[in-house]
């Protein structure tokens, strides 16, 4: 089953009288369990696209279904509920909550978004903190961590609610290339063990090869789709 | 919920300086209001006590029209035996009444055989009078503190002016209702410290002597002073007495009685009212301080943490949750500030009590201010602060919950 179905979506940013077409007639599908990358130079529309899939913004036209829901029609509250239930987010600047420890950051979505009771929370948090290799740092605060460590915590936070889909907009842009490789490998191994679908964007061609499917954007248009890792997920595009 | 409180408290702790400053402001405000309220309440209580317990009583009943011509002490407006019985009956039916004292009031001439002066007299039953105005005995600065028949208690100024002292003989001459003049010889039984207010410079004699001077065939009463168990019940008791006595008419169809609470009998009730108004404005200022400081600090917090809010919203935190997060944070500031303010205020009041601050009121000097902290005052002030805090945090909290995650996340 396709987790994401995008049909001819466009996105225009209107600032006063100036209208910028950030996405132009983009169609693609992402199968469940895929590890998909969107690549392209800066300004090609990657963030815009991930924001649309992430239900943080709405397409100007076209149809976009995520996890069986038409996300174009969700209001603020429904959008928040949908994201909390189906999606996980990994950000370029990590965006951990500074007043929470590693373990508490991972626990945050379970409490504040999902309302999971304490006993089950503890297990899940412990398992994920362990899985991303941060068990020794579980009581540290974000400002005591390196960039790579922060992103590991962010990965655990994105996965702790067992989402259908994790969206990562340039997750390695603020990391050195060695750490970037480790982070992509961590994401991929989490995808392999948990079966979670990942969509990430990057303009770093060295980590692109880890993806099952690579979509290339240029000036808002999808110009190429390829499968360097010989597609494990059922990926196809229009 | 626990997590919400934890996050809020940690965020407060994160900006120590700002939190400390805001909290101090609230603390000082609450402490100040608490001290003000307690001190004025004790001042007020003392003032009211001084007035009502020295001569006025809490409530007075007269024949209709008496209070308006109080200055003349008219004898033709006294209550006759049937009316007295009605009053006593009405009073007996009200459990809030602690004691009452019928008084016969009249004016006369006081003479020490060398010179003479005017005097206003209360003829009373000492036991009833003491029970109704318990501070009266403490006003007796010379003498054994009793009124035997044949004795007169004279006010301080008169004793000084006429150069009389306890044990001296004096004559009181009075004109009765029919216009006939009668003199009566008294022993000075005591000298009374004057107090501020109506009746504060009256002399006292035994009620039997009053009847003799005025040559009354049957008992007559000019006023009935009443003491309540709790002064807080004043309005209710006045209303009940008016209900019981108001409808009674004389032969001409006119109402017989008038009932007055102490506030209607002395201009000092205006001071009390002024204190209440001042308290109200002081509280208003506290509200303004809390409102402005909390709103300011919370708007700043929302502005500074825009990215964090964007992150929370992006990963699915509902708008309502974000509102509560900031509400709890503002509430934390308010509650902590109010609590430490209450502690500081109570401490300040305790120190004031130890210092035994003295003040003068009217002609009395050296009254010691002894203010207690009324728990209900703390509760009221605390509730005001909490309510205002919520109000002040609401706008910043709603603003936070309405941030667009994309824009918020872009903010550096
Ligand atoms: N809020 C916005 N308002 C106007 N133009 C925008 C906005 N966000 C992005 N754009 C424009 O849309 C295009 C795509 O941007 P973006 O999706 O951020 O690309 P990428 O993530 O690949 O760098 C760019 O030309 C950018 O300037
Ligand atoms: Mg981008």
Query: For the terminal residues of chain A, how far apart are their CA atoms?
Result: 15 Å
Kindly give the count of domains of chain B. Answer: 2
For the sheet with most strands of chain A, the description reads: 6 strands, mixed
Number of strands of chain A: 10
Query: Biggest interface, which chains?
Result: A-B, 28 and 23 residues
User: What's the alpha carbon Rg of chain B, rounded to whole Å?
Assistant: 31 Å
Major β-sheet annotation of chain B: 6 strands, mixed, barrel
Shape of chain A: globular
Q: Total helix count of chain B?
A: 12
Radius of gyration of chain A: 17 Å
Structural class of chain B: alpha+beta
Extended strand count of chain B: 12
Cross-sheet strand order for the largest sheet of chain B: 2-3-8-5-7-6
Distance between the termini of chain B: 29 Å
Mean pLDDT of chain A: 92
Shape assignment of chain B: elongated
Percent of sequence in beta strands of chain B: 15-25%
């Amino acid at each position: 089953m396709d987790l994401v179905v995008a049909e001819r979506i466009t996105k225009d940013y209107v600032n006063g009288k100036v209208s910028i077409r950030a996405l132009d007639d983009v169609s693609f599908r992402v199968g469940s369990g895929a590890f998909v990358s969107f690549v392209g130079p800066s300004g090609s529309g990657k963030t815009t696209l991930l924001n649309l899939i992430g239900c943080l913004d709405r397409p100007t036209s076209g149809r976009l279904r995520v996890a069986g829901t038409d996300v174009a029609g969700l209001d603020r509250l429904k959008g928040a509920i949908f994201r909390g239930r189906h999606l996980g987010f990994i950000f370029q600047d990590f965006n951990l909550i500074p007043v929470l420890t590693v373990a508490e950051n991972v626990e945050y979505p379970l409490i504040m978004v999902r309302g999971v009771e304490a006993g089950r929370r503890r297990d899940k948090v412990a398992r994920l903190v362990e899985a991303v290799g941060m068990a020794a740092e579980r009581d540290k605060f974000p400002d005591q961590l390196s960039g790579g460590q922060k992103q590991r915590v962010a990965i655990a936070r994105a996965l702790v609610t067992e989402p259908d889909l994790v969206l990562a907009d340039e997750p390695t842009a603020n990391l050195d290339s060695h750490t970037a490789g480790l982070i992509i490998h961590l994401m991929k191994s989490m995808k392999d063990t948990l079966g979670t679908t990942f969509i990430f964007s990057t303009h770093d061609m060295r980590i692109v090869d880890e993806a099952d499917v690579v979509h290339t954007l240029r000036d808002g248009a999808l110009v190429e789709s390829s499968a360097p890792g010989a597609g494990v997920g059922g990926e196809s595009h229009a | 919920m626990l997590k919400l409180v934890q996050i809020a408290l940690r965020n407060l702790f994160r900006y120590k300086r700002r939190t400390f400053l805001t909290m101090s402001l609230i603390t000082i405000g609450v402490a100040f209001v608490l001290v003000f309220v307690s001190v004025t309440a004790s001042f007020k209580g003392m003032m009211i006590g001084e007035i009502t317990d020295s001569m006025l009583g809490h409530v007075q009943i007269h024949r209709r029209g008496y209070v308006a011509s109080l200055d003349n002490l008219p004898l033709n407006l006294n209550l006759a035996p049937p009316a007295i019985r009605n009053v006593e009956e009405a009073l007996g039916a009200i459990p809030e009444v602690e004691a009452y004292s019928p008084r016969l009031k009249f004016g006369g001439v006081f003479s020490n055989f060398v010179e003479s002066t005017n005097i206003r007299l209360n003829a009373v039953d000492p036991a009833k009078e003491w029970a109704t105005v318990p501070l009266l005995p403490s006003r007796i600065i010379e003498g054994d503190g009793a009124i035997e028949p044949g004795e007169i208690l004279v006010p301080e100024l008169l004793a000084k002016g006429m150069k009389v002292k306890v044990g001296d003989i004096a004559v009181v001459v009075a004109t009765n209702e029919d216009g006939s003049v009668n003199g009566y010889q008294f022993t000075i039984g005591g000298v009374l410290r004057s107090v501020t207010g109506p009746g504060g410079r009256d002399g006292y004699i035994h009620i039997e002597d009053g009847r003799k001077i005025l040559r009354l065939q049957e008992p007559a009463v000019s006023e009935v002073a009443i003491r309540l168990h709790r002064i807080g019940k004043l309005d209710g008791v006045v209303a009940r007495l008016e209900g019981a006595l108001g409808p009674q008419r004389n032969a001409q169809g006119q109402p017989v009685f008038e009932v007055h609470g102490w506030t209607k009998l002395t201009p000092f009730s205006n001071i009390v009212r002024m204190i209440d108004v001042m308290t109200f404005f002081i509280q208003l200022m506290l509200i303004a301080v809390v409102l402005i400081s909390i709103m300011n600090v919370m708007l700043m917090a929302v502005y500074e943490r825009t990215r964090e809010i964007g992150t929370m919203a992006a990963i699915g935190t509902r708008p309502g949750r974000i509102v509560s997060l900031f509400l709890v944070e503002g509430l934390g500031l308010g509650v902590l500030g109010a609590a430490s303010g209450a502690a500081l205020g109570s401490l300040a009041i305790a120190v004031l009590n130890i210092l035994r601050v003295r003040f003068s009121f009217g002609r009395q000097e050296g009254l010691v201010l002894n203010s207690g902290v009324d728990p209900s005052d703390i509760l009221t002030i605390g509730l005001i602060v909490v309510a205002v805090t919520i109000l002040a945090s609401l706008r910043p909290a709603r603003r936070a919950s309405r941030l667009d995650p994309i824009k918020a996340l872009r903010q550096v």
